[in-house]
Amino acid sequence: MPSFYREKELNLRKLIADKLERGKIDFSIFVEITGEETSTQINKPVVKEYLKQLKDIVDGDTTELLKMAVRFPDALSTEREDIDENEWKTILNEIHAALNHITEYRLDEGRVLEADFKNRIATIESLLEEVIAIDPERIEAVRERLRKGVEDLKEKVDENRFEQELVYYIEKYDITEEKVRLKNHLEYFMSSLNSKDSNGKKLGFIGQELGREINTIGSKSNYAPMQKLVVQMKDELEKIKEQLLNVL
Questions:
Q1: Which residues pair with 79 in a beta bridge?
Q2: Per the database entry, which stretches of residues form a coiled coil (predicted)?
Q3: Which residues contact 46 (CB under 8 A, 6 or more apart)?
């Protein structure tokens, strides 16, 4: 901004920061100065020095050399009076109007993002319900696969010991905790989304937790139909994470 507005800089920074809260903001004030608003004077010592140097170089009419000298840097000094408070009031009104337009645009964009998030969270919830529904089927499939593997070895086994080992093995693939935590995180995401506060960073953190639970379910599933559902959940979550970068 022009030097004569520098005293307003701190107040402007606070105004913009309070209104916009987050983001990288570029702000500029450009002023076109007219003759009526300024006092322009000839910098006599500078012009005289230019004339002296020109005369040392060429012989010429003083008037012509003077025309050249006043075009050189610093030959004229332009000064402006102190800030015109009426002018500043007009500028400030325009700044407030611009900030209000930005806020309105953000709100419009936010409504679109909100609808998108709700749809994607609902999709993940629906996929989670499918995961919960097929989990008993998955456990039975793992049990049968292990039993068939033992039978293929043509070895006699102690059924009690086999059942103990089977229970231990299946417990390693139990996803009960992950299902509960994922459901809780989805509910927490929605409650934070509906909050009146600025929650962009908070939603980002919750998104990370969602990803952690989904990834754990995927690594433990050991069952193709469930892994397919996990891939779909990951796809929805990635789209959410991309859009979270645009949330205040």
A1: 39
A2: none
A3: 72, 74, 75
- Distance from C-alpha of 184 to C-alpha of 163, rounded to nearest angstrom: 33
**C-alpha span between 59 and 66 (Å, rounded):** 13
CA 144/CA 163 separation, integer angstroms: 12
15-53: pLDDT as tens digits: 999 998 888 889 998 877 665 555 667 788 888 888 888
Q: Are 66 and 51 a contacting pair, CB within 8 Å?
A: yes
Report how many helices (DSSP H) and strands (DSSP E) the chain contains, helices first. Answer: 8, 2
Tell me which amino acid residue 160 is.
N
Three-class DSSP category at 77: strand
Phi, psi dihedral angles at 80 (to 5 degrees): -120, 150
- pLDDT band at 188; cut points 50, 70, 90: very high
**Cα–Cα distance list, 61 to 51, 67, 70 (Å):** 11, 10, 15
Q: Long-range contacts: 112-117, Cβ < 8 Å, 24+?
A: 113/243, 113/246, 113/247, 114/193, 116/239, 116/243, 117/189, 117/193, 117/240, 117/243
DSSP per position, 124-153: HHHHHHHHHHHHHHHHHHHHHHHHHHHHHT
Q: Which amino acid appears at position 73 of this protein?
A: P
Query: Do residues 150 and 157 make contact, with C-beta atoms less than 8 angstroms apart?
Result: yes
